[in-house]
Design brief:
There is one protein chain. This protein is an alpha/beta fold and about 475 residues long. The protein is built from 19 helices and 21 strands. Strands 2-1-3-6-7 form a five-stranded parallel sheet, sandwiched between helices. A five-stranded parallel sheet has the order 9-12-15-8-16. About 10% of the residues have low confidence.
């Protein structure tokens, strides 16, 4: 890795550079913060190590300026024991990690391993995803864009409370993942997380599933059964597709929220339950209220803290990071070495409409990983359809049947033209700003310049003249 050290103590900077070299990394240091920032802006580094205390300017200010210049940069804070609190604050503001002076060799190796893993995931997708370090585990939650960063912040705020949460979003947007993130970062994280899909069970079956039943309550009820409210007691109950609950059961659910107790089917004795309720729906509950199919009083109880998840088509910049994470999971599950995705395939992924959202993306990538033989996912891998013997490729952002290709030449020509059009559209939107266009396409700046040269695209023709 290529590493920049910004440290005003020349001796400490020299010692740290020498230590990094023993690990096989090249290190450059600057003892002046202005010079360090200038070098940071002009050149590409895999990692920057920044001292928290610099003459004339504090480390948090330098960190902010650095991340304003390069939001994707990995910056590790260097701090003394007495300023660890400041380092933690720096982490909240976007620092990748921190090191305490004097730097211990094992701790440095640990940080370098974390950076290397982050770089590996980024390179797998041909993309440097912004690092959003946080104190909580979101279970694979990717928040590389402003919309999902807002969701991430809302999760952080509500997780520590007992507030009822309603998650709204299209099918496949990750509503259960968000519910698990809320539970996993709450005081209830060591207690059960119980999920129920209300669309899979109806009527008496759903009532028994939620509230349980007593022995002999109905034919076949040979023993007492505890409902999900009791099973989840002390923890979190996630009701997915809550809009599918029939009206007669909605009244019983409302009573649980109001009174904190349930009655098993066939029983007459109330049972106290302590449950944090998180629900989700892909339906418009307000319209259902107007139609008389959903209770307004229940809606107000469920919708104390609303969370709306944007569809994947509004999160296209996050697709490379999501794909990288999924490829890593598939490689591990299949016992393979790293799976990578070629740049043309990333363009293909970012251009699709994704009506099935993240779930559809995962299905497409998993199928491609199974079909792939050389460890590099191509557009042909993504679009292959064995059911009709045809290949599909992306034209104008949609997958269309084109029939089998007699050779790779026609496919290659089509892919190059598709990539050229994607690059041109990005340059048009950014008025010829190569760095902004690269960020929009999810490509490193150096890769973007290489693609411009290969595709024969001159960015200057898109710049507006004064």
């Amino acid at each position: 890795m290529r590493i920049l050290i910004i440290e005003d103590d020349r001796q400490q900077a020299t010692n740290l550079a020498a230590l990094l070299e023993t690990f096989g990394h090249g290190a450059i240091y600057r003892t002046d913060s202005v010079q360090g920032l200038a070098l940071f802006a002009d050149e590409v580094f895999d990692l920057t190590i920044l001292d928290m205390r610099m003459p004339g300017i504090d480390g948090l200010t330098i960190l902010k300026r650095a991340l304003d210049l390069k939001p994707e940069a990995r910056i590790v804070i260097l701090t003394a024991y007495g300023t660890i609190e400041s380092a933690v604050e720096a982490m909240k503001r976007g620092a990748f990690d921190f090191l305490v002076k004097p730097v211990e060799k094992d701790r440095l190796q640990q940080v370098l391993d974390l950076v290397r893993n982050a770089l590996r995931l980024s390179h797998m997708a041909g993309y440097s995803a912004p690092t959003v370090p946080d104190s909580y585990d979101a279970g694979g939650f990717i928040a590389a864009g402003p919309a999902m960063r807002r969701v991430q912040e809302l999760i952080r705020r509500v997780a520590t409370l007992t507030t009822t949460v309603l998650i709204q979003g299209e099918t496949g947007t990750g509503k259960e993942l968000v519910a698990r993130a809320i539970h996993g970062n709450s005081p209830r994280k060591d207690k059960p997380f119980v999920a129920v899909n209300c669309a899979n069970l109806q009527g008496a079956l759903l009532e028994s599933e939620l509230f349980g039943h007593e022995k002999g309550a109905f034919t076949g009820a040979d023993t007492r059964k505890l409902g999900k409210f009791e099973v989840a007691s002390g923890g979190t109950l996630f009701l997915d597709e809550v809009g599918e609950i029939p009206l007669e059961l909605q009244a019983k659910l409302l009573r649980v929220l109001q009174e904190g107790e349930i009655e098993r089917v066939g029983g007459g004795k109330p049972v106290r339950v302590d449950v944090r309720l998180v629900s989700a729906t892909n339906r418009d509950l307000s319209r259902m209220i107007e139609q008389g199919t959903f209770r307004q009083d229940l809606y107000y109880r469920l919708n104390v803290f609303p969370l709306r998840l944007p569809p994947l088509r509004d999160r296209r910049d996050e697709i490379p990071a999501l794909a990288a994470l999924m490829m890593s999971e598939f490689a591990t599950a299949q016992g393979r070495k790293d799976l990578s995705i070629e740049s043309a395939a990333l363009v293909w992924l970012k251009e699709r409409p994704w009506p099935g959202n993240i779930r559809e993306l995962k299905n497409v990538l998993e199928r491609a990983a199974i079909i792939d033989e050389d460890g590099i996912i191509t557009v042909e891998d993504l679009g292959h359809d064995e059911s009709d013997g045809h290949s599909r490729t992306a034209v104008g952002g949609l997958a269309t049947g084109t029939g089998a290709f007699d050779s790779g030449t026609e496919l290659t020509t089509l892919l190059v033209d598709q990539e050229r059009q994607a690059v041109i559209r990005a340059l048009e939107r950014t008025q010829g700003n190569v760095v902004a266009a690269a960020r929009e396409l999810g490509l490193p700046r150096r890769t973007m310049y290489d693609r411009l040269k290969k595709l024969g695209v001159d960015p200057s023709r898109f710049r507006k003249s004064d």
